[in-house]
Design a protein that fits this description.
- GO terms for molecular function: argininosuccinate lyase activity.
- Its EC number is 4.3.2.1.
- The radius of gyration is 31 Å and the shape is elongated.
- It is 59% helix and 5% strand.
- The chain contains 18 helices and six strands.
- The strands form three sheets. It has a two-stranded parallel sheet with strand order 1-2. Strands 3-4 form a two-stranded antiparallel ribbon. It has a two-stranded antiparallel sheet with strand order 5-6.
- By secondary structure, it is mainly alpha-helical.
- It has three domains: 4-116, Fumarase C, Chain B, domain 1, CATH 1.10.275; 121-370, Fumarase/aspartase (Central domain) (Fumarase C, Chain A, domain 2); 374-469, Ribonucleotide Reductase Protein R1, domain 1 (Orthogonal Bundle).
């Protein structure tokens, strides 16, 4: 939410100003301030302050009337932010200072009691955790929608065959839906990691003070419940204000999920190229060339791929900021915010864009079938003899000899007759012709997790059950 332009105000007090008599260098003011970045946590700062005011009243530090006045005053501050009417003033170096300054303007001296026993050290950690917890739940919904779309397409298009690749070379026939569920499996792991991360993010530091704890015996479990922190409270006050693992873990999650989205995007970029023509991106997620009228570029997929690279830089940036900081709070931590906000924003956008691409992409089953060749059934040819009790190591060489025969003749492997194949091994019978069936090849891989249609539909059912139960 945009705020009004800064206006100076003489005599504005800083939360830490009592020790200092000299003026701060104006450049240092700008260098030190974080409000342009952390103002996006205005709602979480207000929510945390309201819970803390109630805890102070519960501990007998505030009267119920004072606590009510603070809570209602903060509601007014929130309304100003929501309406874009909050006026930032000189001295508002961060969101905590700005909100408390405005609260005191609204309700008077009672506003000055809100910070009793609280430090910006435990306050900023609380705001950040609360903001992240809220955002990660939104991201999880987007991630699960992507998985649902993949499941729907995999089931609806279960009969579509396509080439499978290793080393980007033709390998074996698979189903389009099997390819989709391969990426779903990585996205499921991302969802599991996110579910595991959420309680560690939603662990309460408030009540830890600057580093040594709170002297007014505020009920931290009460505050955690008020804020919906499912992870309880941070167990050590020094660690509570020092810990930024939850930021590093969040950015790692974002980086790894974008790696997975990038690999998916790379597949589709290749499959949409003229050499393949397996898929076509919808106009909503593609652009043209400024020079070549025939071009349709998969820009959405390329941007996802690019953001994955930038996200790894964000992760390294966070780790580098944290690595040299002594216990407990250090101003260095402020440098993590831009990286964290960018990571969360980029991941949320990328996941939703990926869902849009996958929902609208057009598949070309005929082109996929043209991409299949009988040479991709060379393993099936070897397996034909395995079923006649010939050791696989021997059948592998026999099949290789058949491939060479076809190459020498300049024909497809499937063009070799049973008589041709019997010159290589006597156990090739006329029924060997059944090997040259791509659907049969895929359906022969009927183990759990295999490429058969039955297995594919089972994978979809399991994924849907996971989404329902987790």
């Amino acid at each position: 939410m945009a705020a009004a332009a800064t206006e100076p105000e003489a005599g504005t007090k800083k939360l830490w100003g009592g020790r200092f008599t000299g003026k701060t260098d104006p450049l240092m003011e700008k260098f030190n301030e974080s409000l342009p970045v952390d103002k996006r946590m205005w709602a979480e700062d207000i929510q945390g302050s309201q819970a803390y005011a109630k805890a102070l009243a519960k501990a007998g530090i505030l009267t119920q009337e004072e606590a009510k006045s603070i809570v209602e005053g903060l509601d007014t501050v929130a309304a100003e932010w929501r309406a874009g009417e909050f006026v930032i003033k000189a001295g508002d170096e961060d969101i905590h200072t700005a909100n408390e300054r405005r609260l005191t303007e609204l309700i008077g001296a009672a506003g000055g009691k809100l910070h009793t026993g609280r430090s910006r050290n435990d306050q900023v950690a609380t705001d950040t955790r609360l903001w992240l917890y809220n955002e990660l739940q939104v991201i999880r919904k987007a991630l699960r929608e992507l998985i649902r779309v993949a499941c729907d397409r995999a089931e609806a298009e279960a009969d579509v065959l396509m080439p499978g690749f290793t080393h980007l070379q033709n390998a074996q026939p698979v189903r389009w839906g099997h390819w989709l569920m391969a990426h779903c499996a990585s996205w499921q792991r991302d969802d599991m990691r996110l579910g595991d991360l959420l309680p560690r993010v939603a662990t309460l530091p408030l009540g830890s003070g600057a580093l040594a704890g709170n002297p007014f015996l505020v009920d931290r479990q009460f505050i955690a419940e008020e804020l919906g922190f499912i992870g309880g409270v941070c167990p050590n006050s020094m660690d509570a204000v020092s810990d930024r693992d939850f930021v590093a873990e969040t950015v790692f999650f974002c980086a790894l999920h974008l790696v997975h989205l990038s690999r998916w995007a790379e597949d589709l970029i290749i499959y949409s190229s003229g050499a393949f023509g397996f898929v076509q991106c919808s106009d909503a997620y593609a652009t043209g060339s400024s020079l070549m009228p025939q071009k349709k570029n998969p820009d959405a997929l390329e941007l996802i791929r690019g953001k994955a690279g930038k996200m790894q830089g964000n992760l390294m940036g966070v780790m580098a900021v944290l690595k040299g900081t002594p216990t407990t709070y250090n101003k260095d931590f402020q440098e993590c915010w831009d990286l964290m906000f960018d990571a969360v924003d980029s991941l949320h956008d990328s996941t939703r864009i990926a869902t849009g691409v996958l929902s609208t992409i057009i598949i070309k089953p005929e082109a996929m079938m043209k991409g299949l060749s009988s040479e991709m059934l060379a393993t099936d040819l070897a397996e034909y003899l395995v079923r006649k009790n010939v050791p696989f190591r021997e059948t592998h060489h026999i099949s290789g000899a058949a491939v060479k025969m076809a190459e020498d003749r300049g024909c497809a492997l499937s063009d070799l007759t049973p008589a041709d194949l019997r010159t290589i091994h006597p156990l090739f019978d006329d029924d060997v012709a059944a090997v040259w069936d791509f659907a049969r090849s895929a359906d022969a891989r009927d183990t759990e997790g295999g490429a058969s249609k039955r297995s594919l539909l089972e994978q979809v059912a399991k994924m849907r059950k996971y989404l329902e139960l987790s």
